[in-house]
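Progress note, project year one: complex with manganese (II) ion.
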Amino acid sequence: MSDTELLSLQTDHLHTLQQRYQQALDAHGYDSLLVSSGAAPRRYGDDQSWHFQGYGPFLHWTGLTGWEHCWLLIRPGQRPVLWLHQPVDFWHATPVLPWEPWQDAVDIDTLEQPGAPSLPRVGRLAVIGDPACLTGVAGDHNPVALLAALDETRVHKTGYEVACLARANALALSGHRAAREAFLAGASEFDVSLAYQQATGQREADAPYHSIIGVNEHAGTLHYQYYSTDAPAQSRSLLIDAGVRFRGYCSDITRTSAGPQEARFAALIQGLDQLQRRLCDMVAPGVAYVDIHRKAHQGIAALLGAAGLVTGLDDDAMVSEGITRVFFPHGIGHFLGVQVHDVAGKPVPPPTDAPFLRLTRTLEAGMVVTIEPGLYFIPSLLDPLLSGPLAGHLNPSLIRELQSCGGIRIEDNVLVTGAGARNLTRAGEA
Ligand code: GLY
Ligand code: MN
Ligand code: MN
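Model obtained:
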């Protein structure tokens, strides 16, 4: 899609949001809504601030991630008003907003000071955002029922949002290719992260989340958070879970690679990749997301049996005895949007067999979800199994061998369409 088409879709997106917000405000008895973009809090006892990324509803309307102390006023039947914070400041650069077509649908004003703007007559007003930014602002602050209704407006992505998510995927994939090449050349985790940032052209602080880059055993820590600067003595495995923001929208992609000496681990990656593609093929309107999660457990059981990691138990028994949860302890995925774990995924809590599932809804056209099965060798989960009553069904020497490769995760971003699904990640890879 050309940039011109994308920008024209953004104008449609704003019209759709105007309708959705109007309905939410009407339903909850409000005449208007003031949204704060937020501001980076100071670190405790320090004069330094955390890196700022912006509040979800503000990003939903504007996509402007780096703009602190800005405000947006939404009123049914009237043009939105956006106040941009434009301080006179010789310590920091004042952000500049280049002109784009969406600004024709919005009135834009500026504020020199960080506080809320003085408003025209707005009737019954709701104000949403980080409470630290709302002190002294008139109106109802963060009313819970309205917030839930506004979260719901983010569940079904507009054409503009889908286009942004697809671009975020394409950008991240160039980083994943560079990361794999760096790993195969013997790079450290730190150098893999530099290769990723260089290829995506995005500093890590602006990415949707801190990249997870685990080489060898580190690939077995689900959210491994360090970057070793030491080049590995032997490059056995790389798990990289990394995304990009494009106009506020996130990608969230994981790929796992095996080093040249690791044929057994490479075969396991291939098996998980096939399973992951089958799970992506399940995505369609009317499918309960938890059923994809449960299907993943059956697939993991089949892989464990085929690899000889577990013997003497059928697939159903491996699931019911909790063995698959030791190898695949997290949920199959979540909603994706202007936040990596996007809102409104759990109107009902997850079932007891899937406690970490972040999405418990039945899929509908327009939702964007991740599909991210994993198969890990995590000592703290495996050790009790290896010393418990099921130990006789496990192959400890093979488990120890594969523990040096940490684990596997494969994660794509998938749009639910009217007829089935569109895999935004694999489409960019082809
Ligand atoms: N990157 C975090 C996740 O996959 O949910
Ligand atoms: Mn991820
Ligand atoms: Mn994810």
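The chain has a mean pLDDT of 97.
The radius of gyration is 23 Å.
No further modelling is planned for this target in the current period.
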